[in-house]
Design a protein that fits this description.
Layout (H helix, E strand, L loop, with lengths): L1 E7 L2 H12 L4 E8 L4 H4 L4 E8 L15 H29 L10 H13 L4 H13 L11 H8 L17 E6 L6 H15 L4 E5 L5 H14 L3 E3 L3 H10 L5 E5 L8 H13 L4 E7 L4 H11 L6 E5 L8 H10 L3 E5 L8 E2 L3 H10 L1
Parallel strand pairs: 4-7, 4-8, 5-6, 5-7, 8-9, 9-10
Antiparallel strand pairs: 1-3, 2-3, 10-11
Length: 366
């Protein structure tokens, strides 16, 4: 076995050295940036150091004696193979990212570069695109074949996508579901759609509670929806009235709680919302996220609302967004299931119960 280190100004040149000396069968064990020692290193750019290994073929056949802990050895070998595959994926990806102009790419790198560019065009963040690309390389995608790799990309993306609508069971009644989120994202309309779906379409006894007493228009809007759907509604102006409302709805199958929109920057309002959640812990808390939300706002919203106890995500107003890559960022970052997608103002028509295939197609094809 030959283990050697090669240094060059960039990954591509280092890999060329590996191929020239060790040949195409060499395995990449490590890639890192290094500097020369002493003062000289301070004034020169960092070099890329690649550690490669080439297994020498045995000179003569031999029989490996059986090991006492054969299962343990197999596991260790599998772990080593997985580590080598991961390092190879990282190396190819880093080579592509270093070659921003797309010049000098190998036949292996060019398809990966196209895939990464296509993913970025959906609006997803670079780290999400990189995660997908690295997984494709890791799984041994045949990059030499003439194909668009759509099925491969979708298969990998599904690993990060979970979907799960509200389920009503006999064991737990009433099921209390909160909808939370920032202002202007369509929580009240979404609650109306959900209430109509579960009462009119599925026949469950549904009650509405609103603690959004900051906006009179929101209360009246929900009252109007409740009258049309023919379900009861309670308005809670404080925590005591909220508790009483839940008692009145003790015989319901499902209770939806509409909350006031909270700015992710307003810690006082978020604290008030947390108090309502803690009085009687809901069975589910669905965070409604606007599809047209800017990427820079997503992190602050998640930081503000996830500690409240969010269990599901609702992706709203997709009819107002240009692309949907942010949805993948959202699902990958939180690991939470996506319960619903909304795409308009009609109640209850513009409510979609998604599955992984629908989500992937939405992100990639719009």
């Amino acid at each position: 076995m030959q283990v050697k280190k090669y240094r060059a100004p960039d990954v591509k040149q280092a890999l060329d050295k590996v191929k020239q000396e060790l040949g195409p069968d060499a395995l990449i064990l490590e890639t890192r940036k290094v500097r020369a020692k002493g003062l000289r290193g301070l004034f020169q750019p960092a070099m890329i150091e690649v550690t490669a290994v080439l297994e020498s073929p045995p000179q003569q056949p031999f029989v490996v004696p059986p090991l006492q802990n054969d299962d343990g050895t197999k596991k260790e070998l599998e772990k080593l193979k997985e580590m080598v595959k991961s390092l190879q994926a990282q190396t190819v990806l880093q080579s592509i990212k270093n070659d921003d102009n797309g010049r000098g790419g190998s036949s292996v790198e060019e398809p990966i570069r196209r895939i990464r560019s296509m993913l970025l065009d959906t609006g997803m963040q670079p780290d999400s695109a990189d995660a997908i690309v690295q997984e494709l390389i890791y799984e041994g995608l045949d990059l030499q074949r003439n194909a668009d790799f759509s099925d491969d990309i979708k298969k990998v993306m599904k690993k990060w996508i979970r979907c799960g609508p509200i389920e009503v069971t006999e064991e737990k009644k009433p099921k209390v579901v909160f909808l939370v989120g920032t202002t202007g994202i369509g929580k009240t309309t979404t609650i109306a759609k959900l209430a109509a779906k579960y009462h009119l379409e599925e026949g469950f006894k549904v009650g509405l509670v609103t603690v959004d007493t900051y906006r009179i228009a929101a209360v009246e809007q929900l009252r109007t929806y409740a009258e049309i759907i023919n379900i009861p509604i309670e308005v809670a102006y404080n925590k005591e009235e909220y508790v009483k409302a839940l008692r009145r709805f003790a015989d319901m199958d499902l209770v939806f709680v509409d909350t006031a929109g909270r700015s992710q920057q307003n810690l006082v309002q978020l604290s008030e919302l947390r108090e309502f959640v803690q009085i009687r812990k809901p069975d589910e808390v669905h965070l409604v996220v606007n599809a047209s939300l800017r990427q820079e706002s997503l992190k602050t919203i998640l930081t503000a609302f996830l500690p409240i106890g969010v269990t599901h995500l609702i992706y709203s107003k997709i009819d107002e967004a240009a692309n949907y890559g942010m949805l993948f960022d959202l699902l990958r970052t939180t690991g939470l299931p996506l319960s619903y997608i909304t795409n308009g103002q009609r109640v209850p028509e513009d409510l979609k119960v998604p599955d992984a295939d629908f989500v992937v197609d939405l992100i990639l094809e719009g």
